[in-house]
Amino acid sequence: LPWRFLQFLLLLLLGVSSAAQAQVNITLGSSLTPQGPNSSWLSPSGDFAFGFQPVEGNTSSYLLAVWFDKIPEKTVAWYAKSSQDTPVQVPSSSVLRLTADGLLSLRTPSDGEVWSPRVPGAAYARMLDTGDFRLFGADGKAKWETFDVPADTILPTQVLLVGQQDKVLRSRLIATDYANGRFLLAVQSDGNLVFYPIAEPTTKRYDAYWASNTVGNGSRLVFNETGRIYFTTTNGTQVNITSAGGVSMGDFFNRATLDPDGVFRQYLYPKSRKARSVWSLQWTVVSSIPQNICQAIKETNAGSGACGFNSYCSFDGTQNQTTVCQCPEHYEFFDKERKYKGCRPDFEPQSCYLDEAAAVAKFEMTPINGVDWPLADYEEYSPIDENECRTLCVIDCFCATAVFRASTNTCWKKKLPLSNGNMAADVDRTVLIKVPRSNNSESQLSSGSTKWKEDKKYWILGSSLFFGGSVLVNILLGNFHLQ
Ligand SMILES: *[C@@H]1O[C@H](CO)[C@@H](O)[C@H](O)[C@H]1NC(C)=O
Ligand SMILES: *[C@@H]1O[C@H](CO)[C@@H](O)[C@H](O)[C@H]1NC(C)=O
Ligand SMILES: *[C@@H]1O[C@H](CO)[C@@H](O)[C@H](O)[C@H]1NC(C)=O
Ligand SMILES: *[C@@H]1O[C@H](CO)[C@@H](O)[C@H](O)[C@H]1NC(C)=O
Ligand SMILES: *[C@@H]1O[C@H](CO)[C@@H](O)[C@H](O)[C@H]1NC(C)=O
Ligand SMILES: *[C@@H]1O[C@H](CO)[C@@H](O)[C@H](O)[C@H]1NC(C)=O
Ligand SMILES: *[C@@H]1O[C@H](CO)[C@@H](O)[C@H](O)[C@H]1NC(C)=O
Ligand SMILES: *[C@@H]1O[C@H](CO)[C@@H](O)[C@H](O)[C@H]1NC(C)=O
Ligand SMILES: *[C@@H]1O[C@H](CO)[C@@H](O)[C@H](O)[C@H]1NC(C)=O
């Protein structure tokens, strides 16, 4: 009871302080610049800001964005995209103006207008406490809002209606690069809600990795203020998208983002004093879909799968819900920050002019445990034994890996690039990868294991964005329910 009373007092205080800051209309003629005092417009509560946000790692480039302004991370919830659907990044000399004739327009000295919603006749604008930035007509009706043109994130109270055109969320390339990434979520005009891998840099959609299967019946994607995210059908049925619920908007900041790894994750950040006393001050994953991205994107018509070509994917669903991409032994990432680019061999590829004896002297097959590339087969032998299988791959300059299944005495040869690599525990199968023969097998073993440790260090760095602890979180959510 005393706790309830304190909570009541706290709510009263919060209510008073937010009432003191009257909702401000952004009037015609107002402007923002990336530097200086007027670089953003705040919502009445101060929770959200609209304006210029510096791009990480580039002090001379800014996004036009909406972000969570009360947390140190300043997490971006929306960013402006050009008519070519690429994020707008502008220099510090740019100006965003709500012009006297009611047009919102972003200009740079060199290129003139680089972005505008092109909706004329606004009377004023507002940054709302929900995170929605709106242009209003003189009649007080919204003429344009950021909630209608999402980037990679949706917020509580945001609704995406099935309409004439697909409404999409597009993942970023990596956490710090807002360029269009490899995954897309579409609220399709046919009533289906679908997740696709994308053939960057085009807009080609590969086979879906999740769908609501509501063609003809889908109606709206809703991020309810209670924290639930669901897709409704015309007959009123709700298809749950995430499993959170009972989250108070007063206690938590809440967002759902199509992350660069293709997983749609719902995150909470403690907001009220009560929540901050129990939760650590960071975004915590409370729900995600699909459950295991590596399994979900397993067999596509083309493309590399969840990770890049020649790499393999594993998903830590129990703790931090992170997607981990790794290179096999004797392969290395093209770019450790951008693992989606895949892995390349760290050795000279096998010349197709080598004779068989030279090939056997230079290369050998080494087993790689618990990993499978289900595609890229180009030859199948049966019956055969494992040694023959190894040799047939070693002497074939096209062959990169071989798979041997003992129970059926079958051997498959696979070529580069390997795709849809996955951690898979199939006891009946030996996956063999072609590597340069070393004179001393001991030295090869030890160099292999240090390389693996290096890889592991990099993925921890790369994936530290996606921390979680869903089990703990669910328990705590339960707590909040009960009080
Ligand atoms: C904002 O503008 C609308 C429409 O002109 C008006 O009704 C409202 O009172 C204004 N609010 C403030 C706080 O000025
Ligand atoms: C910032 O905006 C306020 C309110 O619109 C205005 O009074 C002030 O002059 C602006 N400051 C600068 C440096 O533009
Ligand atoms: C920073 O951004 C500017 C403008 O967008 C761009 O021209 C420049 O190449 C970027 N610099 C780096 C280091 O990415
Ligand atoms: C759409 O809804 C109708 C009526 O409820 C139902 O008969 C039909 O099977 C539904 N279609 C799908 C694809 O679920
Ligand atoms: C959220 O759920 C409540 C209760 O089910 C409902 O009344 C409300 O309209 C929903 N919010 C949105 C944005 O659909
Ligand atoms: C409503 O539509 C969904 C999806 O199409 C279907 O599975 C369900 O059976 C329908 N329910 C009713 C009551 O018609
Ligand atoms: C959807 O989620 C709500 C709230 O978490 C739950 O009550 C309901 O049973 C779920 N529906 C399905 C079909 O799982
Ligand atoms: C989960 O993330 C935390 C913090 O980022 C880290 O300390 C921990 O090692 C991670 N756990 C696993 C199993 O990766
Ligand atoms: C293995 O030994 C041969 C002959 O001694 C030598 O030419 C070759 O460079 C060695 N290879 C490696 C990987 O050390």
Can you walk through the features of this model?
By secondary structure, this protein is α+β, with helices and mostly antiparallel strands. The protein has four domains: 18-149, Agglutinin, subunit A, CATH 2.90.10.10; 150-290, Bulb-type lectin domain (Agglutinin, subunit A, Orthogonal Prism); 305-447, no CATH class; 449-482. It contains seven helices and 36 strands. Strands 3, 4, 5, 6 and 7 form a five-stranded antiparallel sheet that branches. Strands 30-36-33-34-32 form a five-stranded antiparallel sheet. The protein has a four-stranded antiparallel sheet with strand order 1-11-12-13, with no helix packed on it. The radius of gyration is 26 Å and the shape is elongated. The model is unreliable at 1-23 and 441-483 (pLDDT under 50). The protein binds 2-acetamido-2-deoxy-beta-D-glucopyranose (NAG) (9 copies). One 2-acetamido-2-deoxy-beta-D-glucopyranose (NAG) binds next to loops. The chain crosses the membrane at residues 458-477. It comes from Aegilops tauschii subsp. strangulata (Goatgrass). One of its GO terms (cellular component) is membrane. Residues 1-22 form the signal peptide. Residues 17-148 form the Bulb-type lectin domain.
